[in-house]
Amino acid sequence: xxxxxxxxxxxxxxxxxxxxxxxxxxxxxxQALYRLGISEDTATLIASLSPAQILKIATGxxxxxxxxxxxDLVWGLITSHGKTAAGDSVNRLHAAILMAGQQASV
Length: 106
Known about the structure:
There is one protein chain. The chain has 6 helices and no strands. It has helices at 3-27, 29-36, 40-47, 51-58, 72-78, 85-104.
């Protein structure tokens, strides 16, 4: 991939992320705060952006969203391969609980 292709992908990802974030915030603010891992102030700001502002922000060369999972334990739980369906459900629930705790401390 060339640098230009990477920058184009970043811009597209930023636009998709901002549009998704705004949609989630407007539909269910509390769920959006949890799912996006953002603060109340950030949610208010994103919800108030006009389409032109979203487009302008998205065209930057810095990725606006990031991976929220930095914990090896959580990665182990969500990537457990070869487990039973019931075990997989328990692992995903455990991972969600751990990630919710991380959100509360942000």
